[in-house]
Amino acid sequence: MENLLKASSVLYDKEICDTMNKLKLDEKIIIENKYPELLFKNTDEFYKRKEKSLKILKKGIENNINKFIETFIECDTFVNVWGFEPMSKLGMNDFFYDCFYNCLFNMFDNKIYCEYQTHKILCELENVFNIFYSNNCFNITKISKEKSIKLVYELMESYLIVPDGSDENGLFSGYNICFIICDKCNKKANYSNIDKNVCYVCEPL
After folding, report:
1. What are phi and psi of 21, to 5 degrees?
2. In whole angstroms, how large is the CA radius of gyration of the chain?
3. What phi and psi, each to the nearest 5 degrees, are found at residue 51?
């Protein structure tokens, strides 16, 4: 009987592990391929939240830009003295993780999604900066603090929005994430299918 209980316990534990692994895989697929749907009272609420998120991002970059620039100064010094680049150079995550995560969390209020996107995007941006640095495309230590802030901010912002509003794939694109309850039929409608809180089904163009 004892052996039977042990065997049952092992099988039960394996089933739990398999279920958890499947849930993690499903979660990963959802995160990578689906935008969260955010419900707003109106379009003004959507734009205000987006604006606040971008302010959080800008402020965080301003507060950490000096430390970020210093890593490149230290790296240049190391290269000049020893002739090769140090492997321990700090990256984007070390300085901008919190501000980018807080920016996303203010919009999405979803810990898993925000953690995933923050890590993914900052790793991609770190590769961009490393390529620029390695190929002497620009030297961030030689440009002004204001220009450095603008550069880092616009690179991060490009994953969220596009200045002319034409990109529907940004994380903050209203076409992907903004949903509003129609005042007439009381059904959820996407930002692209609604005008003044009335969907196009109720008031066709």
Report:
1. -65, -40
2. 23
3. -60, -40
Cα–chain-centroid distance for residue 45? 20
Q: 23: exposed, middle or buried (C-beta count within 10 Å: 0-12, 13-18, 19+)?
A: exposed
Let me know if residue 14 belongs to a domain. Answer: no
At 75, the amino acid letter reads C
pLDDT in tens, 48-96: 999 999 999 999 999 998 888 887 665 554 444 334 454 445 578 889 9
For 180, phi then psi, to 5°, come to: -135, 145
Q: What range does the domain containing 143 cover?
A: 35-199
Residue 140 is which amino acid? I
The answer to whether residues 57 and 99 touch, using CB atoms and an 8 Å cutoff, is: yes
Domain assignment present for residue 154? The answer is: yes
Write down the pTM of the prediction. 0.76
**Does 152 fall in a domain?**
yes
Domain count, the chain: 1
Q: Cα 196 from chain centroid?
A: 29
Cα within 13 Å of Cα(55), Cβ side: 6
- Judge whether 182 and 90 are in contact, CB under 8 Å: no
d(CA 205, CA 189) in angstroms, rounded, equals: 15
Q: Is residue 126 part of a domain?
A: yes
Strands 38-40 and 178-181: parallel
